[in-house]
Amino acid sequence: MAPITAHSERAWILVGMAERCATQGFEATTADDVCAAAGVPRDSFDRLFADKDGCLAATVESAVEQARAAVADAVSPQRPWAANLRDGATALLGFLAGRPALAHVLLIEAPVAGGRAAAVAESGRAELLGPLERGREHATDEIPASAARGALSGAEGIVVRRVLAGEADTLAGIAPDVVYMLAVPFLGIGEAQRLAAGATRRRHLRAVA
Which helix (H) or strand (E) covers residue 71, if one does? Predict the structure, then answer.
């Protein structure tokens, strides 16, 4: 796991929440558990958060912001849609692979926790739909309006299975599969395969850089 640095008690508490959720689940996690993992006193938690639900929501917000930044660094409005799809998906999977605890919080704990945490996680997921739906503009055939949502759900399914299996740190390795699943409704089998092969090459280049 890539080291997570925190420059304040609040940031350390968010790290502690993510780590405890990943190991024992949100329901079983207490504020004291989070403080123990974060190495901060309980009064710091009580000063910064109303309760553990608020702490989870803040953890999810931080994770979404970091994921958004990782994707933004990998894409550009001046580049073709397909290239942005490939590089954005690869960057997002790489981000999650380097932070397995955050991947677990975003994909497993937050959606079922309810409240603001679930709303923020769903909002982050919805952000992925807009760029994906623009693939209809590049398709050679008429594409159903539901194509993007279906492609995203399918790709999300294989990602979630990896996380549930405790293999979030391997997510970067499935970038070609995810890119193919996202691209094939819009580009067809041949172009989607070529795009996925590009994801493999780019992941290798980053690994050896």
Answer: helix 52-74
Enumerate residue ranges in the chain where pLDDT < 70.
1-7, 200-209
pLDDT at 138: 80
CA distances from 82 to 143, 177, 190 (A): 16, 15, 13
DSSP secondary structure of 144-172: -TTHHHHHHHHHHHHHHHHHHTT-GGGGG
**What whole-number distance in Å separates Cα of residue 96 and Cα of residue 104?**
9
Residues listed for the chain: 209
The answer to whether 56 and 109 are in contact (CB under 8 A) is yes
Please tell me the predicted confidence (pLDDT) of residue 201: 54
- Give pLDDT, residue 71: 95
Q: How far apart are CA 114 and CA 121, in angstroms?
A: 10
DSSP 105: I
d(CA 56, CA 47): 15
Q: Taking the model in full, what pTM does it have?
A: 0.88
Q: Report the phi/psi class of residue 114: left, alpha or beta, with left for phi > 0 and alpha for psi in -120 to 50.
A: left
